[in-house]
Amino acid sequence: MKALKERILRDGKCFEGGILKVDNFINHQMDPILMKSMAVEFVRRFAGADFNKVMTIEASGIAPAIMVGYLLELPVVFAKKKKPSTMENMLTTSVYSFTKGTTYTVCVSKDYLCPGDKVLFIDDFLANGNAAKGVIDLVRQAGAELVGMGFLIEKAFQHGGDSLREQGVHVESLAVIESLDNCQISLRD
Ligand code: 5GP
């Protein structure tokens, strides 16, 4: 998606270890106009898919996911990273975060991820695919069906996308980064 790629090149910042910081428009300050355009693009790319729910993981996936849910008038459920003491009927899974170097628990209530639900997952980044694998596990535990996964930015050099596509998951990424070597942002055409 042209507007996103241009914004990444303009405002994205590279960090050691293959991390791209997009705090200027996604992860801290947010650009709602761009966010809406990205949601419109997801709606276009998943137009042929049949789903009744949009899912994401807190926190940075919530903004794009709610834009998609708003456009399609569908509920949006976000998996939580901390286990609330009050949550009942909980499904949990573990996710390794390479950016933080820790494993954390992700949970969702069975009240909001239900048997028969057809789920479109939306998130900010796809790197190694650990968060995505956690979501696949939650969807499986719930007896729901994963219809597709949409990411704002995929870092192709970490191969999470390859693994998901090999499993037959419909993955759409709005900008694909080939490399961040030498702190140079190299985008796929
Ligand atoms: P994965 O689980 O696919 O390895 O990583 C995906 C998650 O890690 C995303 O939800 C995102 O929060 C975080 N992440 C991975 N790579 C980056 C990055 O380069 N920049 C930022 N800001 N977050 C990232």
From TrEMBL:
<feature type="binding site">
    <location>
        <position position="155"/>
    </location>
    <ligand>
        <name>xanthine</name>
    </ligand>
</feature>
<keyword id="KW-0660">Purine salvage</keyword>
<dbReference type="InterPro" id="IPR050118">
    <property type="entry name" value="Pur/Pyrimidine_PRTase"/>
</dbReference>
<dbReference type="GO" id="GO:0000310">
    <property type="term" value="F:xanthine phosphoribosyltransferase activity"/>
</dbReference>
<feature type="binding site">
    <location>
        <begin position="127"/>
        <end position="131"/>
    </location>
    <ligand>
        <name>5-phospho-alpha-D-ribose 1-diphosphate</name>
    </ligand>
</feature>
<comment type="pathway">
    <text>Purine metabolism; XMP biosynthesis via salvage pathway; XMP from xanthine: step 1/1.</text>
</comment>
<dbReference type="InterPro" id="IPR000836">
    <property type="entry name" value="PRTase_dom"/>
</dbReference>
<comment type="similarity">
    <text>Belongs to the purine/pyrimidine phosphoribosyltransferase family. Xpt subfamily.</text>
</comment>
<keyword id="KW-0328">Glycosyltransferase</keyword>
<dbReference type="Pfam" id="PF00156">
    <property type="entry name" value="Pribosyltran"/>
</dbReference>
<dbReference type="InterPro" id="IPR029057">
    <property type="entry name" value="PRTase-like"/>
</dbReference>
<feature type="binding site">
    <location>
        <position position="20"/>
    </location>
    <ligand>
        <name>xanthine</name>
    </ligand>
</feature>
<comment type="function">
    <text>Converts the preformed base xanthine, a product of nucleic acid breakdown, to xanthosine 5'-monophosphate (XMP), so it can be reused for RNA or DNA synthesis.</text>
</comment>
<dbReference type="InterPro" id="IPR010079">
    <property type="entry name" value="Xanthine_PRibTrfase"/>
</dbReference>
<comment type="subunit">
    <text>Homodimer.</text>
</comment>
<keyword id="KW-0808">Transferase</keyword>
<feature type="binding site">
    <location>
        <position position="27"/>
    </location>
    <ligand>
        <name>xanthine</name>
    </ligand>
</feature>
<feature type="domain" description="Phosphoribosyltransferase">
    <location>
        <begin position="47"/>
        <end position="156"/>
    </location>
</feature>
<protein>
    <recommendedName>
        <fullName>Xanthine phosphoribosyltransferase</fullName>
        <ecNumber>2.4.2.22</ecNumber>
    </recommendedName>
</protein>
<keyword id="KW-0963">Cytoplasm</keyword>
